[in-house]
Design a protein that fits this description.
The chain is α+β, with helices and mostly antiparallel strands. The chain has 17 helices and 14 strands.
Length: about 450
């Protein structure tokens, strides 16, 4: 099919990703990517496309389901409708996109972080969170990202189920209620959350513009890597609410020995919990409640951990959907504290898996550290953009709004269709009526693009 090269004729072009074309039109209409063009200044000559335009090409490639930027030549370059939807007159060759990422400096990374902060404040729900009515919950975690041994800052470290691997670590701060990535940063492979926690919290505080009042209404949920006395006291001094695990396994065993009554988890007979009765002896700058949790291991012995929380029983009961009136029931209260910590598994841990499997983040690695940082920032933007798209379509497509990123990219983004141009403007997108998702998604996309006067119809492809 021909491309739109005559302003006075109607032209049609095939696309394998009609939904992404519609998303691109919306993104351009609201100016979502403008901060990147305004703030990021990469010192690279513009031959055909500017460096910022090539960053957008990389973003489109990620959204198109590519697990490597080399796929830009296959997924984006042959699709003029997709390029036009995002305001692009073409797509750079994949090696040129790679060169732009390799040209990035630490200053460019800071510029990109500033641009994404602006985008997040303009379009996210997390930034507009109603602190006066509801707790803001921020989950913080770090995950291994294996890469080649010659990559910068690729060191031996912890990589799940991969012994003797080298790689880097990626830190996350997630606005859990909204499934949005507030901050995503790259660290060397041998760094743990112990070292990464403070820069992640400071970055999130900057993006969300947290003042004293907002910090008092923000719960930081962290695993044992961030549970050192030093970190806990620093966060308590900042005014945050905490729900985390104690870092020290030796101290956890000592504290667990003070439990006077153990309660069995009603969902897991091999897990028990109880109140720590030893005094804190002024270790922490603010009062904390401590709950010992022990799980039966395969060898019959107990594995022990301690949860520390600044939340009152009534508060944590409400957070897990229980009545605050159960505050007089010790088992219900203890179970609420444990369940609220367990919910990290449905928060940041799930979103990390979504990025690895849905966005294919594990397969995109750059040798230069700054290039890798820029890549991770583009992935964070892609993650948030898809989360926002689900929100835009939630009223018209409630079932699709519950899908994860993997299914969204695989089943919703990849609907074939035809893009119809008139006077260089996309006036119609024809979705393949044979696609099982098209009929459900069509009304939502039609409502989304109504302000742009772009029609969405079902048809034969």
């Amino acid at each position: 099919m021909s491309t739109p090269n005559d302003a006075h004729q109607e032209h049609r072009t095939f696309t394998a990703r009609a939904t992404l074309v519609a998303i691109g039109i919306k993104v351009r209409q609201i100016g979502l990517l403008k901060p990147i063009f305004q703030k990021v200044r990469i010192a690279q000559k513009t031959v055909k496309f500017s460096p910022a335009e090539k960053l957008v090409d990389a973003l489109i490639t990620i959204l198109a389901g590519a697990h490597g930027l080399v796929e830009a030549n296959k997924r984006v370059r042959p699709d003029p409708g997709l390029q036009q939807a995002f305001g692009r007159s073409g797509c750079a060759e994949q090696s040129v996109i790679q060169d732009t990422l390799d040209a990035c400096t630490s200053e460019n990374v800071k510029q990109m972080e500033e641009a994404l902060a602006v985008i997040y404040r303009q379009h996210s729900r997390g930034y507009r969170h109603p602190y006066d009515r509801q707790w803001q919950i921020l989950d913080i975690d770090i995950t291994g990202r294996p890469c080649g041994p010659k990559a910068a800052f690729a060191t031996p470290g912890y990589f799940s189920r991969q012994r003797n691997r080298r790689g880097r670590q990626v830190g996350y701060v997630l606005a859990t209620r909204y499934e949005e990535v507030v901050v995503q940063q790259v660290f060397s492979g041998n760094e743990s959350l112990t070292k990464a926690l403070r820069p992640l919290v400071e970055a999130a505080e900057s993006v969300l513009e947290l003042d004293d009042a907002k910090r008092r209404r923000t719960i930081l949920r962290i695993d044992a890597g961030g549970g050192t006395v030093e970190h806990i006291n620093w966060l308590l001094e900042q005014g945050y609410q905490l729900h985390c695990k104690d870092y020290s396994g030796h101290r956890a065993e000592k504290l667990a020995a003070s439990v006077q009554e153990w309660f069995t988890d009603p969902k897991d007979p091999n897990r028990q919990f109880g109140w720590v009765t030893l005094p804190t002896d002024g270790i922490y700058v603010r009062p904390v409640r401590r709950i010992a949790v022990r799980c039966r291991k395969k060898n019959g012995q107990w594995g022990v951990g301690v949860i520390l929380s600044t939340l009152a029983p009534e508060e944590v009961l409400s957070l897990v959907g229980e009545s605050p009136e159960k505050a007089d029931d010790p088992q219900a209260v203890l179970w609420a504290y444990v369940r609220f910590y367990d919910q990290r598994g449905g928060g940041v841990e799930i979103e990390i898996k979504e990025d690895k499997h849905g966005l294919g983040s594990l397969r995109r690695n750059k040798k230069r550290f700054e290039a890798q940082q820029m890549m991770v920032l583009l992935e964070a933007l892609a993650h948030n953009l898809l989360v926002w798209v689900r929100g835009w379509l939630a009223d018209a497509c409630p079932r699709l709004a519950r899908w994860g990123l993997l299914r969204w990219i695989r089943d919703a983004i990849h609907i074939s269709g035809v893009v119809v141009f008139h006077s260089s403007k996309i006036v119609q997108i024809v979705l393949n009526r044979g696609d099982p998702v098209a009929g459900e998604l069509g009304p939502g996309l039609a409502a989304l693009l109504a302000p742009e006067e772009t029609a969405i119809i079902l048809g034969e492809i």
